[in-house]
Amino acid sequence: MVNVKLVNITKVFGKVVAVRNLNLEVKDGEFFAMLGPSGCGKTTTLRIIAGLEKPTKGRVYFDGVDVTDLPASQRDVAMVFQFYALYPTTVYNNIALPLKSRKISKKDIEKRVYEVAELLGLKEKLHVHINKLTMAEKQKVALARAIVRKPRLYLLDEPLTILDPVTKIIMRSEFKKLQKKIKQTIIYVTHDQIEAMTLADRIAVMNEGVIEQVGTPDEIYNQPNSMFVGWFIGEPGMNFVEASIDRDGKTVKIGEQILLRSNELVSKLTEKSIEKVVVGVRPEYILLLKEPKTCLKNHALLKGKVVVTEFLGTYYIVLVSVDKEDIKVKIPPSAYPKIAPYKNQEIYLAIPIERMLFFDINTGKRIL
Fold first, then answer.
1. CA angle at 135 for the pair 133 and 137, rounded to the nearest 5°
2. Angstrom distance (rounded) from CA 247 to CA 269
3. Per-domain residue ranges for the chain?
4. Alpha-carbon span 101 to 185, nearest angstrom
5. Tens digit of each residue's pLDDT (9 = 90 or more) over 226-268
6. b or e along 273-296 (b: 16 or more beta carbons within 10 Å of the residue's beta carbon)?
7. Strand partners of residue 348
8. What CATH architecture does domain 4-232 belong to?
9. Hey, do 4-232 and 239-360 end up sharing a CATH topology, with the first three levels equal?
10. How many of the other CB atoms lie within 10 Å of CB of 54?
11. Domain covering 239-360: architecture
Protein backbone atom coordinates (compact mmCIF):
# COMPACT_ATOMS: atom_id res chain seq x y z
CA MET A 1 0.00 0.00 0.00
CA VAL A 2 1.08 3.58 -0.53
CA ASN A 3 0.14 7.15 0.35
CA VAL A 4 0.11 9.38 -2.75
CA LYS A 5 0.54 13.13 -2.52
CA LEU A 6 0.43 15.65 -5.38
CA VAL A 7 1.72 19.16 -4.63
CA ASN A 8 0.97 22.14 -6.91
CA ILE A 9 0.77 19.98 -10.04
CA THR A 10 0.39 21.82 -13.34
CA LYS A 11 0.58 20.19 -16.78
CA VAL A 12 0.66 22.23 -19.99
CA PHE A 13 0.40 20.81 -23.51
CA GLY A 14 1.32 23.61 -25.92
CA LYS A 15 -1.18 26.36 -25.12
CA VAL A 16 -3.57 24.04 -23.27
CA VAL A 17 -3.42 23.85 -19.46
CA ALA A 18 -4.63 20.30 -18.80
CA VAL A 19 -4.09 20.39 -15.03
CA ARG A 20 -3.83 23.58 -13.00
CA ASN A 21 -2.18 23.91 -9.57
CA LEU A 22 -3.60 20.60 -8.31
CA ASN A 23 -3.09 19.51 -4.70
CA LEU A 24 -4.30 16.10 -3.61
CA GLU A 25 -3.57 13.37 -1.08
CA VAL A 26 -4.76 9.78 -1.45
CA LYS A 27 -4.58 7.79 1.77
CA ASP A 28 -2.88 4.44 2.22
CA GLY A 29 -5.30 1.62 1.27
CA GLU A 30 -7.98 3.99 0.00
CA PHE A 31 -10.27 3.43 -2.98
CA PHE A 32 -10.13 6.92 -4.46
CA ALA A 33 -12.10 8.05 -7.52
CA MET A 34 -11.29 10.96 -9.82
CA LEU A 35 -14.56 12.02 -11.42
CA GLY A 36 -15.31 14.56 -14.10
CA PRO A 37 -16.36 15.13 -17.72
CA SER A 38 -14.15 14.22 -20.67
CA GLY A 39 -11.16 16.54 -21.01
CA CYS A 40 -11.19 17.75 -17.40
CA GLY A 41 -7.63 16.54 -16.67
CA LYS A 42 -8.30 13.38 -14.67
CA THR A 43 -6.47 10.97 -17.01
CA THR A 44 -3.54 13.38 -17.32
CA THR A 45 -3.33 13.45 -13.52
CA LEU A 46 -3.36 9.64 -13.43
CA ARG A 47 -0.57 9.47 -16.02
CA ILE A 48 1.50 11.92 -13.95
CA ILE A 49 1.09 9.65 -10.92
CA ALA A 50 2.11 6.64 -13.03
CA GLY A 51 5.18 8.43 -14.39
CA LEU A 52 3.93 8.34 -17.98
CA GLU A 53 3.76 12.15 -18.03
CA LYS A 54 6.05 14.60 -16.27
CA PRO A 55 4.36 17.62 -14.67
CA THR A 56 5.24 21.05 -16.02
CA LYS A 57 5.30 22.17 -12.40
CA GLY A 58 4.84 20.49 -9.03
CA ARG A 59 5.94 17.32 -7.24
CA VAL A 60 4.66 13.76 -6.78
CA TYR A 61 5.27 11.88 -3.52
CA PHE A 62 4.82 8.19 -2.63
CA ASP A 63 4.92 7.64 1.15
CA GLY A 64 6.70 10.97 1.53
CA VAL A 65 9.40 10.16 -1.04
CA ASP A 66 9.67 12.46 -4.08
CA VAL A 67 9.16 10.27 -7.18
CA THR A 68 8.59 13.09 -9.69
CA ASP A 69 11.72 12.25 -11.67
CA LEU A 70 11.48 8.48 -11.16
CA PRO A 71 10.70 6.52 -14.37
CA ALA A 72 7.37 4.70 -14.57
CA SER A 73 9.17 1.34 -14.57
CA GLN A 74 10.59 2.06 -11.11
CA ARG A 75 7.42 3.29 -9.39
CA ASP A 76 5.91 -0.17 -8.76
CA VAL A 77 2.56 0.90 -10.17
CA ALA A 78 0.04 -1.14 -12.18
CA MET A 79 -2.22 0.64 -14.65
CA VAL A 80 -5.39 -0.74 -16.24
CA PHE A 81 -6.89 1.11 -19.21
CA GLN A 82 -10.37 1.09 -20.76
CA PHE A 83 -8.85 -0.69 -23.78
CA TYR A 84 -7.12 -3.61 -22.14
CA ALA A 85 -4.58 -4.55 -24.89
CA LEU A 86 -4.56 -8.30 -24.34
CA TYR A 87 -2.44 -10.63 -26.44
CA PRO A 88 -3.90 -13.25 -28.83
CA THR A 89 -3.03 -16.20 -26.64
CA THR A 90 -4.46 -18.00 -23.60
CA VAL A 91 -5.67 -16.36 -20.40
CA TYR A 92 -2.78 -18.00 -18.54
CA ASN A 93 -0.14 -16.53 -20.84
CA ASN A 94 -1.67 -13.05 -20.62
CA ILE A 95 -1.66 -13.09 -16.82
CA ALA A 96 1.83 -14.60 -16.57
CA LEU A 97 3.43 -12.17 -19.02
CA PRO A 98 4.57 -9.49 -16.49
CA LEU A 99 6.30 -12.18 -14.39
CA LYS A 100 8.28 -13.81 -17.19
CA SER A 101 10.67 -10.87 -17.48
CA ARG A 102 11.38 -10.83 -13.74
CA LYS A 103 13.49 -13.96 -13.42
CA ILE A 104 10.78 -15.71 -11.41
CA SER A 105 10.78 -19.50 -11.49
CA LYS A 106 8.19 -21.31 -13.59
CA LYS A 107 6.77 -22.89 -10.42
CA ASP A 108 6.32 -19.52 -8.69
CA ILE A 109 4.77 -18.00 -11.81
CA GLU A 110 2.26 -20.83 -11.98
CA LYS A 111 1.44 -20.43 -8.27
CA ARG A 112 0.82 -16.68 -8.55
CA VAL A 113 -1.21 -16.98 -11.75
CA TYR A 114 -3.50 -19.59 -10.19
CA GLU A 115 -3.92 -17.50 -7.02
CA VAL A 116 -4.96 -14.42 -8.99
CA ALA A 117 -7.18 -16.45 -11.33
CA GLU A 118 -9.02 -17.87 -8.34
CA LEU A 119 -9.37 -14.40 -6.82
CA LEU A 120 -11.08 -13.11 -9.97
CA GLY A 121 -13.04 -16.24 -10.87
CA LEU A 122 -10.89 -17.06 -13.90
CA LYS A 123 -9.53 -20.43 -12.80
CA GLU A 124 -11.69 -22.38 -15.26
CA LYS A 125 -10.68 -20.05 -18.10
CA LEU A 126 -6.89 -20.18 -17.77
CA HIS A 127 -6.32 -22.31 -20.86
CA VAL A 128 -9.02 -20.64 -22.95
CA HIS A 129 -7.95 -18.38 -25.82
CA ILE A 130 -8.55 -14.70 -25.11
CA ASN A 131 -10.76 -14.30 -28.21
CA LYS A 132 -13.34 -16.67 -26.72
CA LEU A 133 -13.96 -14.54 -23.61
CA THR A 134 -16.73 -12.06 -22.94
CA MET A 135 -15.81 -8.38 -22.53
CA ALA A 136 -16.23 -8.65 -18.76
CA GLU A 137 -13.91 -11.67 -18.65
CA LYS A 138 -11.34 -9.81 -20.75
CA GLN A 139 -11.43 -6.92 -18.29
CA LYS A 140 -10.87 -9.40 -15.47
CA VAL A 141 -7.82 -10.75 -17.31
CA ALA A 142 -6.45 -7.21 -17.61
CA LEU A 143 -6.96 -6.77 -13.87
CA ALA A 144 -5.37 -10.14 -13.13
CA ARG A 145 -2.33 -9.15 -15.18
CA ALA A 146 -1.99 -6.05 -13.00
CA ILE A 147 -2.58 -7.85 -9.69
CA VAL A 148 -0.16 -10.72 -10.36
CA ARG A 149 2.75 -8.25 -10.19
CA LYS A 150 1.77 -7.34 -6.60
CA PRO A 151 2.32 -3.58 -7.10
CA ARG A 152 1.85 -1.11 -4.28
CA LEU A 153 -0.52 1.12 -6.27
CA TYR A 154 -3.29 0.43 -8.80
CA LEU A 155 -4.31 3.08 -11.33
CA LEU A 156 -7.53 2.33 -13.23
CA ASP A 157 -8.44 4.55 -16.18
CA GLU A 158 -12.12 4.23 -17.20
CA PRO A 159 -11.98 0.41 -16.92
CA LEU A 160 -15.74 -0.10 -17.39
CA THR A 161 -16.43 2.43 -20.15
CA ILE A 162 -16.74 -0.02 -23.04
CA LEU A 163 -18.91 -2.52 -21.15
CA ASP A 164 -22.68 -2.76 -21.58
CA PRO A 165 -24.91 -1.49 -18.70
CA VAL A 166 -25.70 -4.93 -17.25
CA THR A 167 -22.06 -6.01 -17.28
CA LYS A 168 -21.06 -2.71 -15.66
CA ILE A 169 -23.28 -3.46 -12.67
CA ILE A 170 -21.67 -6.88 -12.27
CA MET A 171 -18.14 -5.49 -12.59
CA ARG A 172 -18.78 -2.67 -10.10
CA SER A 173 -19.60 -5.31 -7.52
CA GLU A 174 -16.48 -7.27 -8.50
CA PHE A 175 -14.26 -4.20 -8.11
CA LYS A 176 -15.55 -3.52 -4.60
CA LYS A 177 -14.97 -7.13 -3.52
CA LEU A 178 -11.52 -7.08 -5.09
CA GLN A 179 -10.40 -3.97 -3.22
CA LYS A 180 -11.39 -5.54 0.10
CA LYS A 181 -9.39 -8.66 -0.76
CA ILE A 182 -6.17 -7.07 -2.03
CA LYS A 183 -6.28 -4.17 0.48
CA GLN A 184 -4.21 -1.86 -1.72
CA THR A 185 -4.43 1.79 -2.72
CA ILE A 186 -6.58 2.21 -5.83
CA ILE A 187 -7.00 5.41 -7.84
CA TYR A 188 -9.92 5.06 -10.22
CA VAL A 189 -10.63 7.53 -13.04
CA THR A 190 -14.16 7.75 -14.43
CA HIS A 191 -16.69 10.12 -16.00
CA ASP A 192 -19.50 7.95 -14.60
CA GLN A 193 -20.88 9.31 -11.32
CA ILE A 194 -22.54 5.98 -10.46
CA GLU A 195 -19.19 4.18 -10.60
CA ALA A 196 -17.56 6.82 -8.41
CA MET A 197 -20.41 6.99 -5.88
CA THR A 198 -20.76 3.22 -5.47
CA LEU A 199 -17.07 2.26 -5.43
CA ALA A 200 -15.04 5.04 -3.83
CA ASP A 201 -14.21 5.84 -0.23
CA ARG A 202 -13.60 9.41 -1.38
CA ILE A 203 -14.05 11.28 -4.65
CA ALA A 204 -12.26 14.21 -6.29
CA VAL A 205 -14.55 16.02 -8.73
CA MET A 206 -12.55 17.72 -11.50
CA ASN A 207 -13.52 20.39 -14.00
CA GLU A 208 -11.28 22.16 -16.53
CA GLY A 209 -8.07 20.96 -14.91
CA VAL A 210 -9.06 21.98 -11.39
CA ILE A 211 -10.34 19.95 -8.44
CA GLU A 212 -13.72 21.38 -7.48
CA GLN A 213 -14.17 19.25 -4.36
CA VAL A 214 -12.81 16.23 -2.50
CA GLY A 215 -15.05 14.31 -0.13
CA THR A 216 -17.00 11.16 0.63
CA PRO A 217 -19.84 10.26 -1.74
CA ASP A 218 -22.32 11.61 0.83
CA GLU A 219 -20.45 14.91 1.18
CA ILE A 220 -20.13 15.32 -2.58
CA TYR A 221 -23.83 14.66 -3.11
CA ASN A 222 -25.42 16.53 -0.22
CA GLN A 223 -22.87 19.30 0.41
CA PRO A 224 -21.47 20.30 -3.00
CA ASN A 225 -18.91 23.11 -2.80
CA SER A 226 -19.90 24.54 -6.16
CA MET A 227 -22.75 24.70 -8.64
CA PHE A 228 -20.71 22.53 -11.00
CA VAL A 229 -20.52 19.69 -8.47
CA GLY A 230 -24.23 20.03 -7.68
CA TRP A 231 -25.09 19.91 -11.38
CA PHE A 232 -22.66 17.13 -12.35
CA ILE A 233 -23.65 14.77 -9.52
CA GLY A 234 -27.22 13.48 -9.46
CA GLU A 235 -29.82 12.06 -11.84
CA PRO A 236 -30.92 14.69 -12.68
CA GLY A 237 -28.56 17.26 -11.20
CA MET A 238 -29.38 19.89 -8.60
CA ASN A 239 -31.90 22.66 -9.35
CA PHE A 240 -30.45 26.18 -9.39
CA VAL A 241 -32.75 29.18 -9.11
CA GLU A 242 -31.76 32.84 -8.92
CA ALA A 243 -33.18 34.62 -5.87
CA SER A 244 -33.11 38.20 -4.56
CA ILE A 245 -32.39 39.23 -0.98
CA ASP A 246 -34.55 41.94 0.58
CA ARG A 247 -32.64 43.25 3.61
CA ASP A 248 -35.41 45.58 4.72
CA GLY A 249 -38.14 42.98 4.59
CA LYS A 250 -35.71 40.25 5.67
CA THR A 251 -36.87 37.90 2.95
CA VAL A 252 -35.46 35.85 0.08
CA LYS A 253 -37.59 35.94 -3.08
CA ILE A 254 -37.83 33.98 -6.31
CA GLY A 255 -39.45 36.43 -8.69
CA GLU A 256 -42.34 37.91 -6.72
CA GLN A 257 -42.77 34.89 -4.44
CA ILE A 258 -41.27 34.77 -0.98
CA LEU A 259 -39.06 31.70 -0.54
CA LEU A 260 -37.83 32.47 2.98
CA ARG A 261 -38.96 34.88 5.65
CA SER A 262 -36.92 36.17 8.55
CA ASN A 263 -34.95 33.23 9.97
CA GLU A 264 -31.35 32.24 10.67
CA LEU A 265 -30.60 31.58 6.99
CA VAL A 266 -31.97 34.95 5.89
CA SER A 267 -29.92 36.69 8.60
CA LYS A 268 -26.73 35.00 7.39
CA LEU A 269 -27.46 35.97 3.79
CA THR A 270 -28.22 39.63 4.62
CA GLU A 271 -24.92 39.82 6.53
CA LYS A 272 -23.03 39.05 3.31
CA SER A 273 -24.00 42.35 1.65
CA ILE A 274 -25.25 40.69 -1.52
CA GLU A 275 -28.44 41.40 -3.42
CA LYS A 276 -28.76 38.16 -5.37
CA VAL A 277 -27.96 34.53 -4.68
CA VAL A 278 -28.45 31.15 -6.37
CA VAL A 279 -30.56 28.66 -4.42
CA GLY A 280 -29.79 24.98 -4.98
CA VAL A 281 -31.95 21.99 -4.08
CA ARG A 282 -32.03 18.37 -5.20
CA PRO A 283 -35.11 17.35 -7.28
CA GLU A 284 -35.95 14.41 -5.00
CA TYR A 285 -36.23 16.62 -1.90
CA ILE A 286 -39.08 18.70 -3.34
CA LEU A 287 -42.70 17.72 -2.72
CA LEU A 288 -45.57 18.48 -5.10
CA LEU A 289 -48.84 19.58 -3.50
CA LYS A 290 -52.26 20.26 -5.00
CA GLU A 291 -53.24 22.58 -2.15
CA PRO A 292 -51.02 25.01 -0.21
CA LYS A 293 -52.69 24.21 3.12
CA THR A 294 -51.07 20.78 3.11
CA CYS A 295 -47.55 22.24 3.23
CA LEU A 296 -45.35 20.73 5.94
CA LYS A 297 -43.58 22.66 8.68
CA ASN A 298 -40.02 23.81 7.94
CA HIS A 299 -40.76 23.84 4.22
CA ALA A 300 -40.83 26.81 1.86
CA LEU A 301 -43.84 27.02 -0.45
CA LEU A 302 -43.80 28.15 -4.09
CA LYS A 303 -46.60 28.24 -6.64
CA GLY A 304 -45.88 27.08 -10.17
CA LYS A 305 -47.25 25.58 -13.35
CA VAL A 306 -46.49 22.12 -14.76
CA VAL A 307 -44.52 22.34 -18.02
CA VAL A 308 -43.92 18.67 -18.81
CA THR A 309 -43.78 15.24 -17.17
CA GLU A 310 -41.25 12.56 -18.09
CA PHE A 311 -41.43 8.88 -17.10
CA LEU A 312 -37.96 7.33 -16.71
CA GLY A 313 -38.87 3.87 -15.41
CA THR A 314 -37.83 4.08 -11.75
CA TYR A 315 -39.04 7.66 -11.31
CA TYR A 316 -40.91 10.58 -12.88
CA ILE A 317 -39.46 14.02 -13.55
CA VAL A 318 -41.98 16.87 -13.39
CA LEU A 319 -40.75 20.20 -14.75
CA VAL A 320 -42.47 23.11 -13.02
CA SER A 321 -42.21 26.77 -14.05
CA VAL A 322 -41.97 29.17 -11.09
CA ASP A 323 -41.77 32.86 -12.04
CA LYS A 324 -39.98 31.99 -15.31
CA GLU A 325 -37.57 29.64 -13.50
CA ASP A 326 -37.77 25.91 -14.31
CA ILE A 327 -37.56 23.54 -11.35
CA LYS A 328 -37.26 19.75 -11.66
CA VAL A 329 -39.12 17.51 -9.21
CA LYS A 330 -38.29 13.81 -8.93
CA ILE A 331 -41.20 11.56 -7.93
CA PRO A 332 -41.24 7.78 -7.29
CA PRO A 333 -43.91 5.85 -9.24
CA SER A 334 -45.72 4.99 -5.99
CA ALA A 335 -46.38 8.68 -5.25
CA TYR A 336 -47.19 9.76 -8.80
CA PRO A 337 -50.90 8.68 -8.94
CA LYS A 338 -51.73 10.80 -5.88
CA ILE A 339 -50.63 13.94 -7.72
CA ALA A 340 -51.09 12.99 -11.40
CA PRO A 341 -49.69 16.31 -12.68
CA TYR A 342 -50.73 17.44 -16.15
CA LYS A 343 -49.50 20.19 -18.47
CA ASN A 344 -50.36 23.77 -17.39
CA GLN A 345 -51.73 22.54 -14.04
CA GLU A 346 -51.22 25.02 -11.19
CA ILE A 347 -49.31 23.24 -8.45
CA TYR A 348 -47.34 23.97 -5.28
CA LEU A 349 -43.76 23.05 -4.45
CA ALA A 350 -42.84 22.35 -0.82
CA ILE A 351 -39.08 22.67 -0.37
CA PRO A 352 -37.42 21.58 2.91
CA ILE A 353 -35.47 24.54 4.23
CA GLU A 354 -32.71 22.33 5.65
CA ARG A 355 -32.05 20.97 2.14
CA MET A 356 -31.50 24.39 0.55
CA LEU A 357 -27.96 25.42 -0.38
CA PHE A 358 -26.86 28.90 -1.42
CA PHE A 359 -24.25 29.76 -4.05
CA ASP A 360 -22.48 32.94 -5.12
CA ILE A 361 -24.13 34.18 -8.31
CA ASN A 362 -20.77 35.20 -9.84
CA THR A 363 -18.33 32.46 -8.80
CA GLY A 364 -20.75 29.54 -8.44
CA LYS A 365 -19.13 28.64 -5.10
CA ARG A 366 -21.30 27.67 -2.13
CA ILE A 367 -21.66 30.34 0.54
CA LEU A 368 -24.17 28.60 2.86
1. 55
2. 9
3. 4-232, 239-360
4. 25
5. 999 999 999 999 999 999 998 877 899 999 999 998 888 888 8
6. ebeebbbbbbbbbbbbbeeeeebe
7. 289, 303
8. 3-Layer(aba) Sandwich (3.40)
9. no
10. 11
11. Beta Barrel (2.40)
